[in-house]
Design brief:
Elements lengths: L1 H27 L9 H10 L24 H4 L22 E4 L5 E5 L2 E5 L6 E2 L7 E2 L16 E3 L10 H7 L6 E4 L2 H5 L1 H5 L3 E4 L3 E5 L3 E5 L5 E2 L1
Parallel strand pairs: 3-6, 6-7, 7-8
Antiparallel strand pairs: 1-2, 2-3, 4-5, 9-10, 10-11
Amino acid sequence: MNIFLKIIAGIFTVVVAIALFAFAFLIFWKPLGGSATKSQREDYAKRAPNFDGKKFHNDGDFSLMHTGGKDDLRVSKNGVRPNFSLPVGTVDFFAENSVTWFGHSSVFLRLGEKSILFDPVFSDVISPVSFVGAKRFSSPAVSISEFPKIDVLILSHDHYDHLDYKSILEIDSKVSRYVVPLGVRKWLGGKKRASMTFRLYARPLDIFLEDDLSIRCKRFGVLGF
């Protein structure tokens, strides 16, 4: 009987320890983000009419696009990974009025003398942890240390394949201004993040830069220059 009780006690201790570790991991591991405070939620409600105090809602009715037939390119798992090495080109950060694509949504835009970077993701694994998650098909064409000064860094949203916490930490010293959607600043969190200059958008917002360059952020994620 004593052995049985010891086994039960041991199992209970392990379960409690795992639960406490998981709870602490969810609370303190910064790449997982964080919850908005009451004052932040009140601020969201003032600036976003589609926020009800707890969550955001789509404006009006919407429907998913559907062609009426099976689309193998969208639903099939066949051929979604290349069976060859993807070609990687050279990067010229200062080519006038140029666009450089680094994969998925990571894009570097050079307009005149301005450098604009979208959703920089340069980690090998797309995940809040380095040992689990989808891996890149190929290495980036450049490292973050090779980037020039970034006038504006734009984050579209906080999915891991768009907001890479490790990449943000590495490129932070090069960035003059961040443009993020409403609520994403909390995702970044921390004292270092609080010292940044953020623009949070819920409604169409014009961000005016010098030399007659402006960025318009629209609610549905469309960016115009």
